[in-house]
Protein 1
Amino acid sequence: MNTTSPPPRVAAPASRLTELDWLRVLAFGLLILYHSGMFYVSWDWHVKSPRLIPALEPWMLWLNPWRMSLLFLISGAATALMAGRADGGGGLIASRSRRLLLPLVFGMTVIVPPQAYLEVVEKLHYAGGYGDFLKLYFQGYHGFCRGDDCLKLPTWNHLWFLPYLWAYTVVVLLATRLDVVRRCLAHPGWRQVVAGGRLLWVPWLVFALLRQHLLERFPSTHDLVHDWYQHSVYFAVFLLGFALYGSRDDRHGAWETARRLRWIALVGFVAVQLLSQRLTSEWGIAHGDAFPEWLLMALRALNAGKQWLPIVAVLGFGRQWLADRDSPWLRWLTLAVFPFYLVHQTVTVIAGHLLAPLHWPLAMEAVALVAITALGCLLAALLAMRVDRLRPWMGLGPRT
């Protein structure tokens, strides 16, 4: 007898792309694992294990250039599908604002503060209690500093994705009210953009130019206002998702082209990644950290390929393996993944802070960290689904 309980019933909306749903779930799952890994690498993060795992860093470097861009592209495609079903742009803007901004407010008020508290406890040896810290947090206290690096409070930490996504969504939905924009999105010339191998090299070229001209001028801030390089990349991939991957009938052929080019994109990504690592390593061994301009330009071009080629590969394999693969589990995960995203980093930070003093074997500790994060995400999603008043604050719509 089968004792496995089915997931709660979730209605299947019309005009869905199951490959898009699967990729969204998998991309956020990858993000959760990535942030668990941040506890064990040498890069700056909110809390740190006293026992680092340097071997994780090369693997995480394979994900760094494209993991967030993939999420923005998926979000752009999902927004186009929603716009195709909506009666009017104004209603969709209001709906998306509720689904993105209410969780942002709730996150900055309830979910994120424990991360900031444990950060100042570990990095600055703050001795006050959590209640004392919250008073400073909501007062906008800026005195938690290491040299010139001060923690800005309140903060949205990992939830920076929400205001960025909201801004891009509003801009695009307002623009699509114009006839000229709608005609542009429907223009058959988009097929020429993705025809042949252009889907591989045209966006790569665009990202290379953005890296060359904006990256050093506008370092990443995640503050929404001054983050112009990141905006140029994330808004570009959001637009690509909206224009090319947000139609059920694949009107511009972008899904099919990605499917056809998936192996080329994957092999190209591996080759570009290995070449970039080899150039960086060999020059560093021979000449130190001072890179000449010609090498920096070459590395920027290669890094642009690392941004785009894996996205094409992921889209292509998603189309090949996940199209029309609907299930109750997928529909449930599609609903649960937003609460997962909201709480996962806070659970990881708290769990890491509490696990480190126990001095468990490192492998056991790492497995426990991932397991606790997964369990915390599951409990948060179930709670959000069952408590009606909590649903909008956790990014869920009304019960259907």
Protein 2
Amino acid sequence: RIKNKDPSYIQKFWVGLMDGDGSIQVNHWRKKALQYRLVIKLRHCSENVEMLNLISKDIGGKVRIIKKNEFVIWVVDSRKSILKILKIFDTYPPLTSRLRAQLKFMLECFKRDDVEWYLNSRNSKYLTPTGRDISVDIDYSYFNEWLSGFIEAEGCFSIRQNNFHSFSIGQNDDKYLIDAIRNHFNIQSQTRNPYKTFWLIETYRVSTLHNIIKHCTEYPLIGQKLVSFNKFKDLIN
């Protein structure tokens, strides 16, 4: 499915998937030691298992089925492996303020290795406005691959009985990111704010949907979203 892609495709895609569905976690063990984890949690289905196995093969980490077969997770909990994998973010930084703040906090915990500091700082790790980026300079050299990973997590291909098919994608807090996706696909409709800090774009325009289909064909989805994309593509084309 990802034939002829450069070896870094999975890494760039993974950053987008982490931005959408992943988390960078620091916890403590009985207030004595710090524990570190990278996690992506998805609905359990063969396509998601296959995708996470691909990530595990290329990047590292283990894939497990949890909660009575309901979810599949990709997890890295060895400090050495985490440090190695975090280097990917040096080359392809995350684009959501949430993941950037989690990454910054984990790196600070690694540096200090101080449970006391962690316990005092964990509640403010990314809840304060100053701790989160209001906007990010987007590096477009990996944006296409990142975007496919992000669509895998947050995109929605809606098929409707009345033939008003649409594509939508949303995100908490980061309007700058939804605006960047809107510009990238040349979406005419405005970015909406349906509730609280959630930002969303949705497009029904056939010419725009063709742009999105072209993108997802060139930069393939590799999990469960590929199934809904293929059905969608057949209807639009």
Protein 3
Amino acid sequence: MTSHYAVLGSPIAHSKSPLIHNAAFGFLGADSDYQAIELEEGVAGFIAGLSSDWLGLSLTMPLKREALAFGDRVDYLAIEAQAANTLIRTNTGWDAYNTDIFGIGQALEGSDFDSVSVLGTGATARSAIIAMQQLEKKVTIWGRNEIAGIRMAKEFECAWVSLDKAVRADLTISTLPGGGLDQYLESLSPQGMLLDVAYDPWPSGAAKLWSVNHEVISGIEMLIWQAIGQQRLFAGNQLEEPLENEHKLVEAVREALSMAK
């Protein structure tokens, strides 16, 4: 019997998650499929209508808080991030996880940096802060919503800084939507590398500016690795437990993305 999975969110038409996960299932030889479903709200109602062969869901905006509240058991990272991007069916209900934190950490694997600025105040920004604090990096925060940003800085015991200062960090992680930095770019002088979580359209205005003199990491890297984290969970592994031949799985996913360009 085919097992079913999907990503829920809105807007969802642009999502690359079906391409990534179906490539992964194909590599693994799993009798599973994965689709994108437009859903603005109502996670509980949607799941109530699913048959028993639906085994897992990915959640993107604006459903990550709903997914967190829906989980019968919630992973501690999802609790800390106040957002769940993964729901796994169990014998007793649904477990909620956050693989964004894992994805951000893996996207930066091998990069050399000490200071980090996180741009944004939403769920992905929280995940980025947690990922960097796990690595014991010095984190500062900037966001367009200053009140929310200062509150977040206090919660995570980080400094709230101006945007000019933020982009002087060894690493800037922008969690802003695509084009979210465009109005500020003319006045910025970046001094480190950039991880831009927004990957469509690519390259972003920020990526173009940073790439003149600095390394730029596309948000596709985070997307790939958070999906690999979900594949671990779909397979019944713990989040920190790699799949067999995972490096080849990642290669297969990258090839699928490359062929789809």
Protein 4
Amino acid sequence: MNDSAGPEPNVVMEPEDYAGWHASTLGTITEAIENRLLLGMIGDPKDQNILDVGCGEGDLALSLAKSGARVCGIDVSPAMIREATDRASRSGNSVDFSVAEAARLPFPNQSFDVVLAKTILCFVRDPEPVFDELARVLRPGGVLVIGELGKRSLWVARRRIRAWFGSALWRQGYFRTPAQLKGFAARAGMTVTEVRGAIYYPHSGLAARVLGALDPWCSRLTTFGAAFLALKAKKPPATRAVV
């Protein structure tokens, strides 16, 4: 991929990259906590038009469709989209999956009631063009829910050490603070209504099993130490012209 100076991701994740993660205790518990937080921020999705940006294998998109939403899912990886489409077919849920980039969404202005984006910015140096696109396709009064990797956590320390010892993946990673995410949303014209953290336990399956149940309690208290950050923002409603 292109250099990370632009809005394009310089890393494309494929289904095989996640196979070990999804099969592990740590991955199963962590994904469940993250997804529960994001879905809780969306609320009741029934009859909503929802875009899932960076949908991966389609877990969140299919969950939303099962709850009555009309869902489109996009990802830069054709293999991810093939897997998501296969899962939708097997589950009997209707989701429109397609290959596209977050910085160049193939949808008209004001197309969606909700835009969901999970970990699409961790390999993007400049997220502002992406936030602009997410805001563009939201209807006035629509909701943006975004989940990203938090900067102040034990998980980041581990990833930084791996980068120092040669991990090509994490040498290219970007981690955000709550203030940075709020700033990106505000510059895109959005009003931030909520920022929450998740994943406060160390990077181990045992820690996830023992401490995972405490995560919602920690999330209500602070974002410090959270490996995952979730932000909810609203697009201002349309203003009527004064005659």
